[in-house]
Structure formats: C-alpha cells, structure tokens
Amino acid sequence: MSLVTGDALSLLLFRLHSGRLLGINLLKVNEIIPCPALTKLPNRHPNVRGIATLRGAAMTVIDLARAIGERGAADEDDGCLIVTELSRSRQGLHVKSVERIVQCSTRDVRPPPAGAGNRAFITGVTQIDGAIVQVLDIEKVLHDIAPALEEAPVGQLLDGQDARLLQGRRVLLVDDSQVALQQTLNVLRQLGLDCTAVRSAQAALQQLHEYHQAGMPFELLVSDIEMPELDGYSLVQEIRRSPDIADTYVLLHTSLDSTMNTEKARSVGANAVLTKFSSVDLSQALLDAFRQMSGQH
Description:
Elements: E1 8-15, E2 21-25, E3 29-34, E4 48-54, E5 57-63, H1 64-67, E6 80-86, E7 89-95, E8 97-105, E9 122-128, E10 131-136, H2 138-145, H3 160-166, E11 170-174, H4 178-190, E12 194-198, H5 201-213, E13 220-224, H6 232-240, E14 249-254, H7 259-268, E15 272-275, H8 279-293
Parallel strand pairs: 2-10, 5-7, 11-12, 11-13, 13-14, 14-15
Antiparallel strand pairs: 1-2, 1-8, 3-6, 4-5, 6-7, 9-10
Organism: Ectopseudomonas toyotomiensis
InterPro entries: Chemotax_regulator_CheV (IPR024181), CheW-like_dom_sf (IPR036061), CheW-lke_dom (IPR002545), CheY-like_superfamily (IPR011006), Sig_transdc_resp-reg_receiver (IPR001789)
GO biological process, one term: chemotaxis
C-alpha cells in the first residue's frame, strides 16, 4: 500500500502589468472573474482599488502589483480578479492576466533567496518549463493591508488549572510565511508555552532530532500544511518514520477550509487539524492536546 503524500502542488500562474510571472497555490483560489465596476472608498488603503460586489456580498479589491511594490495598472478595466478566501475573509487580487494551472512538486519549490528581505512577498521559487515562477505569500500581502484584528489576549481566557497545564511546555512551530509564523508565535507565547519557531519542514525535523538528543524533546509540533520543499503532510510522515521523534504530537493547520485537508492530515498521522486560523481555536486545540497527553479528558 502506498503512502498518501502531500507532494503535489497545483499553482495558478498569472502576470502583473510589469510582465512579472507569479504563482499562487490553487487551493487558495476561489474563482477568476473579469474586473467589475468598483466603488471607491474615501481614506482607503493606497493598495486597495475599491470594493466590488460579488453575488450580493462586498469584497475588497487589492491592486496586487502596488501591494508588492510595483507600478499598478492605470486602467481599472484592464485585467482580472483572482478571488481568494483565507481565514474568514474574501478579497479580489487585481492582476494583468491569468495564464494557466500547472502541477509541480513541493520539493521543487525552493525558499526565497536569502537576500530577498521582508519585502519580497514570496514564500518560494520554482521553475516551470524553463521560466522562473515566484510563489506569492498571500498572507503577507493581506496582513500589510489589513493587519489581523486584535483579539482579546488569549492568555486571559485560561483558568488557573489550564494555565498551569500549558506553562513552560515545549512547542515547535513551523510556517513558511513570516507573517503567519509571527501571528501563531504571539498566541503561543501568550499561553505561557516555551516556543521555538522555524521557516521550513526540514529545519523542523532537524530541531526535533537535536532537541531529542539533548534530552529536551518537543512535546508538540504546530505546522502549516502548505509549505515548499516538504509540506505538512510529508513532514508528519517523516516524523512517524523516525523512532526517536515518532511520538511527537502534531497539530497541522491551514488558512483554508477543507474536509479534504482534515481527512488527508489524519491519514498521514497528524493528531489534530485546524482549518481557518483563529487564536481562540488554536488555543483550544493546544489545550485539548496537552490534556490528552496528561491523561485528562
């Protein structure tokens, strides 16, 4: 019987008005539509073109070129919208044109060049038919335009017994998006957890082995699913195949909402799956995990 792997990655390729070729994970795309008439809002963010109405619901339209530091389109009727829905919000990305959908392996997606810096807005780079394709970090684009609403500090939601249960427990966090990583790290630290954060699955494997050998094993791993080189599904499989770290509790999470994600994550050996990130849901999932490890129900 062959193992279920998360190796396959579908990318929607599109171009900005500069001609730059980018890709976005197809799982993060709802639909592609011609750019509709937009309602302009006073005092709107400079990278927001306006508001569109799609099937009766308002949707923010982002000038993607401007959002990542390029010249935006002069003509609003020129181009199309890539509609995405992440973590309970829907938005349209205004781009020059959509080209095609391609299949590749997550192992062929390399991390961004070291000198790319925080303004790169990409999570990885790959080659498709000899052309360089940069994979868009959509979470970073959205965060720069509308930072996540400040929720009540999750640490205040814990009673004394729960706070003691979590205090100082060692957790490893992995996410290829710096923005998503920081958001999750903030939540975990508010809960009193002892956190280490890395940007790739390979780095996570290395940390799990090294900390175990040092006699300070991580009790729990919180991992994104959609990552280049080695995704969350494949990471779980590698962990379960390694005797020294095979018992690590793994919580996979994704900004997408899909039954498929949950079923696939369970099939490769994840202990729990969280879709559509929120700090409250993450806190509850962590509490459930440590209660389970401590024999509480």
